Amino acid sequence: MYPLKRNRRLRSNESIRNLVQETVITPNDFLVPLFVVEGKNTKEEIASMPNYYRFSLDLLEKEVKELWQLGLKSVLLFVKVPENLKDNKGTEALNPNGLMQRAIKTIKNAVPDILVMTDVALDPYSAYGHDGIVENGEILNDASAEVLAKMALSHAQAGANFVAPSDMMDGRILTMRQTLENESFYNTGIMSYSAKYASAFYGPFRDALDSAPVDAKDIPKDKKTYQMDPSNRTEAIKETQMDIDEGADIVMIKPGLCYLDIVRDLKNAFQVPIAVYQVSGEYAMIKAAAEKGWLDHDAVVLEQTMAIKRAGADIIASYFAKDVVKLIS
């Protein structure tokens, strides 16, 4: 006897499939990472991230105007700091005329309504490539959090809508929130990298900003004392709860595809927007496999993006944002 219910009826043609589709991708889902460098008329392709670039400020202006026209309304800024400006205390991060501060102003002048989020971490400014101040072979937590809070304030003063601390120092969200409130930046949001794992997928990003830990005596060789152990699951809930209690408005999981169980855990546990970072290694793998002809680039990009949203992401930080928007349009 044939079944009364035939699930294939709802798959029989494209119109019915679209009608009952549970997860839909739109341009509003994306946060576009942008890399900024000093110079003029500079557009440098990142070797380990094909078709992704670092922009000087003049070309950054053109890029954000194009993003806006595509319907991409939110960006996440990172800067590549010249070596001569790096030290162990992130001094350049607090420069009101620094590259990040000028980038914020450039974008806001070009597209006033675009949402600007900024990376808050010391590794681009660190002579040692770490997210905090290094002393006697250790990463100082509280001293680093104080500098990060000042850095966030500097970004807010330049016009950032949200600051996005990616450092994983304990208590830095509370320090940051109090600093912003004390200076009357009540409406500056915080998107916390709450569950940032010590992942092997960050290599191309560190190439993009030259921010990998240096190989030197008395310098930690990796970031495992502050980023999370990839084997841990429930710890992500604890970390995220602390960040929310300290004043985070949005929480992020990083990386994406290997951590979709964490995305769903946090979506079920908390009633705040959940962001996911589809990181550089994930981008590079697809690009490399597609170049070899082993994968259908566009189909895989759409499938992975759908998987991240289906798992519970409200916001997707992705180097594929422009590609996806063009595909779905």
Primary descriptors:
single chain, 329 residues, 11 helices, alpha/beta, two-stranded antiparallel ribbon, eight-stranded parallel beta barrel, 38% helix
Task: Explain how this protein is built.
With 329 residues, this protein is α/β, with parallel strands linked by helices. Helices cover 38% and strands 19% of the residues. It contains 11 helices and 12 strands. The protein has an 8-stranded parallel beta barrel, surrounded by 8 helices. The protein has a two-stranded antiparallel sheet with strand order 6-7. Helix 2 packs across helix 3 (99-110). The protein is globular. The termini are far apart. The model has no long low-confidence stretch (mean pLDDT 95).
Topology at a glance:
Elements: H1 14-19, E1 30-36, E2 43-46, E3 49-55, H2 57-69, E4 74-79, H3 99-110, E5 115-120, E6 133-135, E7 138-140, H4 141-158, E8 162-165, H5 172-182, E9 189-196, H6 203-209, H7 234-246, E10 250-254, H8 260-269, E11 274-278, H9 280-291, H10 297-311, E12 315-318, H11 321-328
Parallel strand pairs: 1-3, 1-4, 1-12, 4-5, 5-8, 8-9, 9-10, 10-11, 11-12
Antiparallel strand pairs: 2-3, 6-7
